[in-house]
Write a structure and sequence with these properties.
Elements lengths: L1 H22 L29 H5 L14 H20 L3 H23 L4 H14 L10 H7 L6 H31 L6 H14 L1 H25 L10 H27 L3
Helix pairs in contact: 1-3, 1-4, 3-4, 3-10, 4-5, 4-10, 5-8, 7-8, 7-9, 8-9, 8-10, 9-10
The structure holds zinc ion (ZN).
């Protein structure tokens, strides 16, 4: 039953994210005017605005002018519901679930604005950095390796301070290492360097995740980007001047890390004999 409720909330949040994805990159209000067809401008009736169901019933077309509705809408709704369900499975009903669910919503939003518009709005990453810092007072952030360094110097901050330091270190790791990996990616895609939006995205991920998970995210995101971009780049000339949405790859990696990253890092540290 709990899963049904989380799933329905996911669809509803996904529906709201669709509005944000369509409007935020254009600096339009997300409240008014109400949803309308982009072609005939007819307002969407409430019963035509039910997530997934309406798209299926309308056959993916506007009821008034029969214009095709982008399949991105139901995809975003499904992805949001799926990720929130995975967060709930991983963290059950806890402050950590609220934190990671909120993080997932922001990341899904940015995955799609970067993919569709090559935009990572500062309004979203700014909100993310502030709320991630606030969450670090409630849900402990992984403070390795900064905590090891402090302990080495004989400094033992309290649990809350530890968490806040972990968030700051994560932001530093995300922003700092990003230039290095960004440089490698730049050589692969031969287009202009990284946007400030990508840096803001990794600052935000760092504040939520702490340093280890942030580094894992950058590694997974770069790997995923290379895995998809390199073969396409070599196979056809069509993608020669294509600006790959690095933020989209990083976002997907961030969601994977937030769900299974701690287990992966723990397994790696055991295997390498560090802990
Ligand atoms: Zn229409």
């Amino acid at each position: 039953m709990a899963y049904v409720i989380v799933g329905l909330f996911g669809l509803a949040f996904g529906s709201f994210l669709n509005v944000c994805i369509a409007r935020l990159p254009r600096h339009e209000s997300i409240v008014s005017p109400g949803s309308h067809c982009p072609r005939c401008a007819h307002p969407i009736r409430w019963y035509d605005n039910v997530p997934l169901l309406s798209y299926a019933l309308l056959g993916g077309r506007c009821r008034d002018c029969r214009a095709r509705i982008s399949p991105v809408y139901p995809i975003v709704e499904l992805v949001t519901a799926g990720v929130l369900l995975a967060d709930f499975y991983e963290y059950s009903l806890s402050p950590a679930f609220v934190k990671w669910a909120f993080f997932s919503l922001l990341i899904i939003l940015l995955i799609f604005t970067d993919l569709l518009e090559r935009r990572i709005p500062h309004a979203v990453t700014g909100l993310g950095i502030a709320s991630g810092l606030a969450f670090s007072f409630v849900v402990p952030v992984d403070n390795r390796p900064a905590g090891w360094l402090l302990a080495h110097w004989g400094v033992f901050p309290g649990a809350t301070m530890n968490s806040v330091i972990g968030a700051a270190a994560g932001a530093l790791a995300g922003g700092g290492l990003f230039y290095v990996v960004g440089e490698v990616f730049y050589r692969l895609r031969h287009v202009e360097g990284l946007g400030f939006g990508d840096v803001m995205l990794m600052l935000m991920a760092g504040v939520f995740m702490g340093a280890p998970m942030t580094l894992l995210t950058i590694m997974l995101g770069s790997f995923l980007g290379t895995l998809i971009a390199a073969p396409l780049h070599l196979a056809t000339t069509r993608f020669r001047n294509y600006a790959w949405p690095f933020g989209t790859f990083l976002g997907v990696a961030a969601i994977f890390s937030s769900l299974g990253g701690q287990a992966l890092i723990a397994a790696y540290l055991r295997w390498s004999g560090i802990s």
